[in-house]
Amino acid sequence: MNCNGEFEEKTGYISFEKSETNGFKNLKIRTKIEKRFLTGKNSKTGDCNEKVLKSFKTQILKYKEGIYQ
Questions:
Q1: Are 1 and 43 in contact (CB under 8 A)?
Q2: Of 31, 60, 18, nearest to 69 (Cα)?
Q3: DSSP annotation string for the chain
Q4: Domain total of the chain
Q5: Which residues are paired to 3 by β-bridges?
Q6: What's the gap between Cα 26 and its chain centre?
Q7: 64 vs 43, residue with greater confidence
Q8: Contact yes or no for 61/27 (Cβ under 8 A)
Q9: What is the span of the domain harbouring residue 47?
Q10: Shortest CA distance to 3 belongs to which of 43, 44, 49?
C-alpha cells in the first residue's frame, strides 16, 4: 500500500445575518477546510502516518447592483 498523498476537503455553510444591505439580508459563508497529508508508514503498526490541518474561512456577501458580492 502506498502511503503518500495530499487531500483537501471543503464544506460550506450559508446563513443569514441580521444586518441588511439595500433591503436584503447579508449572507455569511463559513467554509471548513481540512487538508490531509499521508507521509509513509508507521513501522510499528503498518498504518499510514497522517497529518490533518483544519481551518475555517468566513466571508460576508452583501447585495449590491442586483447580485450578492
A1: no
A2: 60
A3: ---EEEEEEEEEEEEEEEEEETTEEEEEEEEEEEEEEEEEE-TTT-PEEEEEEEEEEEEEE-EETTEE-
A4: 1
A5: none
A6: 20
A7: 64
A8: yes
A9: 4-68
A10: 49
Cell of 40: 509513509
Give me the pLDDT at residue 15, please. Answer: 98
| Nearest-10 Cα torsion for 45, 5, 57, 12 | -90
Other Cβ atoms less than 10 A from the Cβ of 25: the count is 15
20's CB contacts (< 8 A; 6+ apart) are 26
pLDDT in tens, 12-60: 999 999 999 999 999 999 999 999 999 888 888 888 899 999 999 999 9
